[in-house]
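debug: dumping io for the single-chain case to check the tokenizer round-trip. Nothing else runs in this session.
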Amino acid sequence: MPAIKFRGVDFIGFDTLLSGDERLVRDTTRKFIEDNLVPIIEECNRAGRFPRELVKPMADLGFFGASLQGYGCAASDPTNRKIPGYPPCRRAKSWAASD
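debug: decoded output
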């Protein structure tokens, strides 16, 4: 069964706490996950394969080293460092519940 697109339900009002930059990080991350990870993750899980082809695009978006300054890293604030983890966690929980 294909994964369902995120509908944007915000029961705790999390979005109201985000700045414009933080919403941009969230939206960029969400789009990346929906466009690149969702279509292949079930197959990767079943095959026991890590989607290495996503590492470079994730690095290009600044997902790695967000807390580091220099070395071409983002050096973002603590909130922006955590936002990219939310969409993948949401997906992982939905798949765990469906197995």
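debug: round-trip ok. The longest helix spans residues 20-47.
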